[in-house]
Amino acid sequence: MHKNLRFWLRRIGLGLVGLLLVTSLNSYLTSPSNAQGVLQVGTEPAFPPFEMQAPDGKGFTGFDIDLFNAIGEEAGLEIQFQSMPFDGLIPALQTQNIDAAISGMTITPERAQTIDFTRPYFQSGLAIAVRKQNRGEIQSFDDLENKKIAVAIGTTGAQEAAKIPGAELFTFDNSALALQELSNGNVDAVVNDAPVTLYAIKVGNLNNVEVVGELLTEEYYGIALPQDSPNLEKINDALDELLESGRYRQIYQQWFAGEPPDLPLVAPALEGEGATFSWIETFQTLFWGALITILLTAFSVFFGTIGGTLLATASISDFKPLGWLTRIYVDFFRGTPLLVQIFMIYFGIPSLLQGIGLDFSFNRFAAAVTALSLNSAAYLAEIIRGGIQSIDQGQWEAAQSMGMGWMQTMRYVIFPQAFRRMLPPLGNEFITMIKDTSLVAIIGFEELFRQGQLMVATTYRAFEIYAAVALIYLLLTFIASRVFSWLEKRLNPVQRANKRASAQVASSPEVASRSV
Ligand code: ARG
């Protein structure tokens, strides 16, 4: 009775705590966008001078930001900006996680199929940027054939560059990274919005980059809203008002030189046709992505194992400084995020080496494998060391008393036993590696996740495509985990002995005659 009461009290208590957590989480997640009159506005703030982080690190600044704040004042709306990746803006609008997006977003017919745009608020166009030393070689769109081109994911620049025959595209999360890539010498050109590239050259540290040729396109930026948003009219009215009152001109001149051009009421591009979505194409693309993921995992595990074994051997050696060095290595690679390591290796090392005058650039596959192998070597080293040290000291002594040397003891006595103990954590590490390869998407490497991202960026089918991507990862990790449990069983001497014994019994003449 007493016990029963305690049991129920505990249950009720737990239930209450759970309820509290859920309700507070729920109100935390939903309150901002539901609050009356507050408009949640998404923006990707690596697109100066349209949107960027404010110099003090607090909030955002730029032409778009000033304009939207003015619209807010005009329309009596309180604005709250939210930073998100550019290719996430349209999906976020579709699910109404945000109420609007201002992000130098070009009005295109494809986008207009899934979201609504306000009237155009800025006239822009795409430009080609090259390194100054290559200026003679690339002067127009046609010169880009068979070249390496960096673009930002989901942008019109990426769309335009995809039309160039033979060009190899390098897709980054934002224009700033693409331009950095050009400056680092890893690509031949960047196709990006002209005002942004010009601003980056003028203000940023890109003094080895310049814009060549004429504008490739004429584009108009619009503010994006979910379909049938009640705010569309309010914002359009406010924009009209700002354009008329001269406030628009004032904001324009804070960020750009000269007079603002006249803007049409409807973007000319909206007269065209949008692209369509196909599941067959999606699966074909994801299939290639999955192959790359497998390849990336295989290479990284291979080199990681070599590195891990060397590190483990060093860490158990009697020579102390070796032990310290491996400790530092392991602590560093386990103690810092893999993402940071990937950035350090891919962007950091080339710019460091170029800084001291060496002409060095990283192939993306090599950079990805290097980062993943260095990282997993740290984990593998610990697994291997732990496995070896878990074998009883007495076994070393026994083997040595039989006259075996270090190498022999390791090979015939210690390692086979240690390896079996290492298998479960090795399996974990392998599965983690399959999933971690998705992080190299950030350097534009087109593995499974990136392929998914790229498809979402053009089709805006976020849920279906990411669900398919998740399923493929699940399939890969499932197969890996099955293989490891099979290995574990196979290497288990007790089971093997039992099997052998039962096989022997079954085939012995005695048993055979008895069964007749
Ligand atoms: N205008 C281009 C587009 O709509 C690029 C916009 C990128 N904007 C940004 N904030 N990153 O595709």
Can you offer a commentary on this structure?
The chain folds into three domains: 32-122 and 221-271, Periplasmic binding protein-like II (D-Maltodextrin-Binding Protein, domain 2, 3-Layer(aba) Sandwich), CATH 3.40.190.10; 126-217, D-Maltodextrin-Binding Protein, domain 2, CATH 3.40.190.10; 279-503, MetI-like fold. It contains 19 helices and 15 strands. It has helices at residues 2-34, 63-75, 86-94, 109-114, 156-161, 175-183, 194-203, 231-245, 247-255, 279-315, 320-335, 338-355, 364-389, 393-401, 406-436, 448-459, 462-490, 493-507, 509-515, and strands spanning 38-43, 46-47, 51-53, 60-61, 78-83, 100-101, 115-117, 122-124, 126-131, 148-152, 168-172, 189-193, 209-212, 219-221, 224-226. The strands form five sheets. Strands 11-10-12-9-13 form a five-stranded mixed sheet. The longest helix has 37 residues, at 279-315. Residues 30-34 have low confidence and may be disordered. It binds arginine.
Mean pLDDT: 89
Total helices: the number is 19
CATH level 3 topology of the largest domain: MetI-like fold
The shape is elongated
Small ligands present: arginine
Provide the β-strand percentage band.
5-15%
Summarize the entry for a quick read:
This protein has 516 residues and is α/β, with parallel strands linked by helices.
List the helices and strands and how they pair.
Elements: H1 2-34, E1 38-43, E2 46-47, E3 51-53, E4 60-61, H2 63-75, E5 78-83, H3 86-94, E6 100-101, H4 109-114, E7 115-117, E8 122-124, E9 126-131, E10 148-152, H5 156-161, E11 168-172, H6 175-183, E12 189-193, H7 194-203, E13 209-212, E14 219-221, E15 224-226, H8 231-245, H9 247-255, H10 279-315, H11 320-335, H12 338-355, H13 364-389, H14 393-401, H15 406-436, H16 448-459, H17 462-490, H18 493-507, H19 509-515
Parallel strand pairs: 1-5, 1-6, 10-11, 10-12
Antiparallel strand pairs: 2-3, 3-4, 7-15, 8-14, 9-12, 9-13
Helix pairs in contact: 2-8, 2-9, 10-11, 10-13, 10-16, 10-17, 11-13, 12-13, 13-15, 14-15, 15-17, 16-17
This protein binds arginine (ARG).
Residues 44, 47, 51, 86, 103-106, 155-156, 174-175, 193 line the site of arginine (ARG).
